[in-house]
Amino acid sequence: MKKILVSLLAALLLLCTGCSQPKEQTLQIFAMDTVMDFYAVGENAEETLNAAAQEINRLEALLSRTRTGSEVSAINGGGSVTVSHETASLLRSALQYAQTTSGAFDVTIAPLVDAWGIHSDMPRVLSANEIRTLLPLVGSDHVQLDGDTVTLDAGCRIDLGGIAKGYASDCVAELYRQNGVTGGWASLGGNVYAHGTKADGSFWNVSIRDPKNTAGSAAMVQLSNQFAVTSGGYQRYFTAEDGTVYQHIIDPATGVPAQSDLLSVTIIGQNGTMADAYSTALYVMGLESAQKFWHAHEEEFDMVLVTEDTVYYTAGLAEHITTEEGGPYRVQVIT
Ligand code: AMP
Ligand code: MG
C-alpha cells in the first residue's frame, strides 16, 4: 500500500511538473521566396505559430507581384485600382520612406529589377541605353495614392520586396503579443524579430551573418522586443561574364545594382517595416551617407554596418553586441 501511495505521489508530481512547463513550439515555412523559422514559448505557442504562418501566406497573396490575383499585381496591371486599406497603408509608408531616404529606397524600381532579371534564372547586364530608357519610370511621383485607390503612370510598376518581409514581421510580432507568447523569435529571411526574453530573463542572441563567410557571424546582438533587419549584396547576386558581381539592390539614381562599399547593413529598431526600408536604403547610400543618415535619425534606430575590413556599430548597441576579438574585422563604434 505504501509503495502504491509513493508511486501515485511520484506520478502526480510528474504530471504537475508537466503542467507548469511552458509550452514551446518551432515552425519552418517557405514563403515570400525565403525560408522562415519561428520559435515561441507560452500557453498558446502552437496556435500562435499556426496563425503566424497563415498571416504570412495571407500577406504574400496580397503583396507578391509575381502572383496573379495579388493586389500588387492588380496595381501593376495599370489603371486606377482600389486596394485594401492595408495594402494602401503599406504603399503610403513606402512612399514616405522614399522621401525620408531621398529616393535611395524606392518601390517604383520594379522595371529595373525585372530588366536586370535579378530574381530570374536569366539575369543579364543592361546596356546604358536600356537603363536610360527605363530610368524615367522610377520615382515616387509616378504613384498617385488617393485614399485606397492607386494609379501608376503608364509603364511604371511597384515592387514591395524591399519592405514586405519587414511589414510581415511587424504582423507576426503583433500575434506574439496578442497571444501571450512570453519569449521567442521569428526569422523571415534577413528579417528577425526577437520577442520577450529567454526563460532566465536574458535577451535573444541574433547573429549578424559574416558577408564574406555566410556560415559565420560578423557580430552577435542581444535583443528583446526589437527587430534586426539585414540587407546585403551577398543575399542575391549574379556574376557577369567579365567577372563583375551584380547584386539585387538597385540604386534608383543610376538604375544599376548598387556598387556599395558596404557588404551588409543591419537596422535594429522597434518597427520592422521601417527597419526593412532603411536597411535597403542605407545599403544603396554606402558607408558615409549611411552614417550621416543615422545621425539625422538616431532616435529611431541603431545599426551595424559591415565593410570589407570593419564592423561598425552605433553607440546604443554597446551593451548588447558581441564581436570576435582578433577576428577578420576591425571594430569601430559610431557616435
Ligand atoms: P532587401 O532584401 O530588403 O534589401 O530588399 C531587396 C529587394 O527589394 C530586391 O530584391 C528588389 O526586389 C527590391 N529593391 C531593389 N532595389 C531597391 C531599392 N533601391 N528600393 C526598394 N526596393 C528595392
Ligand atoms: Mg529591405
Topology, element by element:
Blueprint: H1 2-20, E1 24-31, E2 34-41, H2 45-63, H3 71-76, E3 80-82, H4 85-100, H5 110-116, H6 128-134, E4 143-146, E5 149-152, H7 164-178, E6 183-188, E7 191-196, E8 204-210, E9 213-223, E10 226-232, E11 237-239, E12 245-247, E13 250-251, E14 256-257, E15 264-269, H8 272-285, H9 287-296, E16 301-306, E17 310-314, E18 321-322, E19 330-334
Parallel strand pairs: 17-19
Antiparallel strand pairs: 1-2, 2-6, 3-5, 4-5, 6-7, 7-10, 8-9, 9-18, 10-15, 11-12, 13-14, 15-16, 16-17
The structure holds adenosine monophosphate and magnesium ion.
Succession of helices and strands: HEEHHEHHHEEHEEEEEEEEEEHHEEEE
**Count of β-strands:** 19
Mean pLDDT: 93
Bound molecules: adenosine monophosphate, magnesium ion
Q: What overall geometry do the principal axes of the alpha carbons give?
A: globular
Summed up:
The protein has helices at 2-20, 45-63, 71-76, 85-100, 110-116, 128-134, 164-178, 272-285, 287-296; strands spanning 24-31, 34-41, 80-82, 143-146, 149-152, 183-188, 191-196, 204-210, 213-223, 226-232, 237-239, 245-247, 250-251, 256-257, 264-269, 301-306, 310-314, 321-322, 330-334. The protein has 335 residues and is an alpha+beta fold. Residues 8-18 have low confidence and may be disordered.
Describe the structure.
By secondary structure, this protein is of the alpha+beta class. The protein has helices at residues 2-20, 45-63, 71-76, 85-100, 110-116, 128-134, 164-178, 272-285, 287-296, and strands spanning 24-31, 34-41, 80-82, 143-146, 149-152, 183-188, 191-196, 204-210, 213-223, 226-232, 237-239, 245-247, 250-251, 256-257, 264-269, 301-306, 310-314, 321-322, 330-334. It has a nine-stranded mixed β-sheet with strand order 1-2-6-7-10-15-16-17-19, with helices on one face. A hairpin with a 5-residue loop joins strand 11 (237-239) and strand 12. It starts with a helix and ends with a strand. Residues 105-107, 109, 113, 159, 161-162, 190, 231, 248-250, 252, 276, 279-280, 284 line the site of adenosine monophosphate. Magnesium ion (MG) is lined by residues 162-163, 231, 276-277, 279-280.
